[in-house]
Inverse folding.
C-alpha cells in the first residue's frame, strides 16, 4: 500500500513539472509577439524595413538603415517619445512580420493596394511614387506598350508584376532584390526594369557610367501611385501617431526637406 502511494505521488510530481514547463514555454513564446496596441513599458516601436529599397530604405557601410522612409519614421517616433528598433528583413518577410505582430509597423516604399488595405492598417499616403521604367540608351521606350515584346525585370512580390500583366508584358523576370534586376539590365539579360521611379533613378545616379532612359508611369489621382506604411489591425494608436506625425511634418516643411534630400528631381 505504501508503495502504491509513493508511486502516485511520483506521477503527480511529474505531471506538475510538465505543466510548469509547458506554462513557461507558453510565456516565452508570447514575448516574441507584440500584441498590445503600443509597447508602453519600453516606449519602443518595432519597425520592419527592407534593406534593398534605396533611397527609401537601405543599409549604409556601417550596417545601419538609412533613407527617406527611415528618417520619416524616426522623426515621428522621437517626437512622440519613442525609440525605433528596426527589423531589417527581406521584402516578403517584412509583411509576414507585421501579420504575425512581431513588428508594429512596416515602411519601405510600400505601395497602396486594395489587398493590403484588407490585410493591414494603412497610413495616409505620404509621398507620390509613380512607376519608373529604366532602360539603357540603346533601347527606346516611349510608352508601356513598347514593353510588350521586351524582357522586363521586376522585384519578386512587388506590384509591378501585376502592372506588367495588365499591360500584356509576357517576358517578366523577377528577382529577390531590385538591384539584381538592375544588374540584369546592365548585363543585357533584360531590356528594361520597372520599380518605383525614385528607386530606378537612384540606380541610374549611382552608376553614371551606364547611360539610361527613364519612362515615368503614374497618376497623381491613383492611390496605387503613393507610398503607405502598414501596421497590424490592432495597432490603431501607432498608425494614428504616424498619420499625425506626417501632418505635422508637412506643416513644418520637414517632409519637403527630406524629399529634397533623398529624391532626384
Amino acid at each position: 500500500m505504501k508503495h502504491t502511494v509513493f508511486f502516485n505521488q511520483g506521477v503527480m510530481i511529474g505531471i506538475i513539472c510538465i505543466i510548469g514547463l509547458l506554462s513557461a514555454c507558453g510565456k516565452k513564446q508570447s514575448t516574441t509577439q507584440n500584441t498590445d496596441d503600443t509597447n508602453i513599458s519600453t516606449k519602443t516601436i518595432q519597425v520592419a524595413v527592407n534593406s534593398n529599397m534605396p533611397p527609401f530604405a537601405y543599409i549604409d557601410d556601417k550596417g545601419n538603415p538609412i533613407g527617406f522612409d527611415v528618417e520619416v519614421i524616426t522623426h515621428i517616433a522621437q517626437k512622440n517619445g519613442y525609440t525605433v528598433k528596426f527589423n531589417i528583413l527581406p521584402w516578403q518577410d517584412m509583411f509576414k512580420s507585421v501579420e504575425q505582430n512581431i513588428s508594429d509597423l512596416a515602411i519601405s516604399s510600400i505601395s497602396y493596394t486594395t489587398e493590403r488595405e484588407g490585410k493591414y492598417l494603412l497610413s495616409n499616403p505620404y509621398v507620390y511614387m509613380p512607376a519608373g521604367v529604366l532602360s539603357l540608351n540603346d533601347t527606346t521606350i516611349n510608352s508601356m506598350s513598347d514593353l510588350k515584346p521586351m524582357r522586363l525585370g521586376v522585384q519578386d512580390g512587388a506590384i509591378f508584376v501585376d502592372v506588367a500583366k495588365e499591360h500584356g508584358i509576357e517576358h517578366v523576370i523577377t528577382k529577390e532584390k531590385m538591384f539584381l534586376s538592375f544588374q540584369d539590365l546592365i548585363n543585357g539579360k533584360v531590356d528594361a526594369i520597372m520599380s518605383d521611379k525614385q528607386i530606378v533613378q537612384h540606380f541610374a545616379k549611382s552608376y553614371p557610367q551606364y547611360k539610361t532612359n527613364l519612362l515615368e508611369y503614374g497618376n497623381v489621382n491613383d492611390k496605387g501611385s503613393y507610398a503607405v506604411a502598414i501596421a497590424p489591425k490592432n495597432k490603431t494608436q501607432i498608425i494614428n501617431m504616424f498619420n499625425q506625425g506626417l501632418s505635422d511634418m508637412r506643416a513644418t516643411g520637414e517632409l519637403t526637406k527630406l524629399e529634397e534630400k533623398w529624391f532626384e528631381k
Notes: The first strand starts at residue 44 and ends at 50.
